[in-house]
Amino acid sequence: MRAAIITFPGINRENDIARAVTMAGGEALHAWHADADLPAKTDLVVLPGGFSYGDYLRCGAIAARAPIMAAVKAHIARGGHVLAVCNGFQIACEAGLLPGILMRNAGLKFVCRMQHLKVERTDTAFTAAYQSGQVIAVCIAHGEGNYVTDDETLAMLEGEGRVAFRYCDAAGDITKRNPNGSRNAIAGVYSENFRVLGMMPHPENLIEILVGGTDGLGLFESLMKAA
Amino acid sequence: MKARITVTLKTGVLDPQGKAIEGALKSFGLGGIESVRQGKLFEIELAAQSPAEAETRLKEACEKLLANTVVENYRIEVIG
Asked: What is the pTM of this model?
């Protein structure tokens, strides 16, 4: 798997993603926001976390209009995969790759902590290494993770099975531990063709026992198998 | 030409910042505050032949970047 990790000004998680890709057996390549093209033979594009453009205007709004995004859209049109994490998720929503928007956390505070997620389905390129209904422990670190859509869009996402992960407690109860007020406790969503995944939590930071667990590695191993 | 663009949250969209400001204003003991919604104001100078042309360009600016129409409304005023 050749993963093109895109760095926008203010992004700071690109090397964490690169480590996770490498650990899963993939090849991590870097691309710059001002580039017109992705590296040759890119299987996966990653929009990493951070604070692109200082979160000015709206989180991800300015990065979503960067030159490289045209190449990302062409990659999706060719059937390529995109993983968008945290600020990357905000960029993907602002670029129209995914529906909805990430608003300020309902509790107004930046939330940085370990968080359980329920894996909604395991028949996608991103989650095949997990068990159905599995509860995984990863970390979250965001101030604007409150996933909002209108009622029709929410019904469409639920109806099409496009919710990837939901916030939950250790027992998998999705009515508990919602860190930001997201509708239906949504932590991640898929695009219509299930080739784009946007999520607020950071699976790339839970890949080693030494730093708290390995529950995030499955996502990268799944992508490795899909490539 | 000068213009002013106001971006506000649509009705029904949760505005935790507005709520916090509302709470602060009420805590001062200011009477009569019923609700607060926070928005954004852009003051823009642009070269255009006519107010209509300016408005067309600013509408494009709003749709492409200044507002996220999933949750926000915008209002354009060309001041002249």
From this structure: 0.95
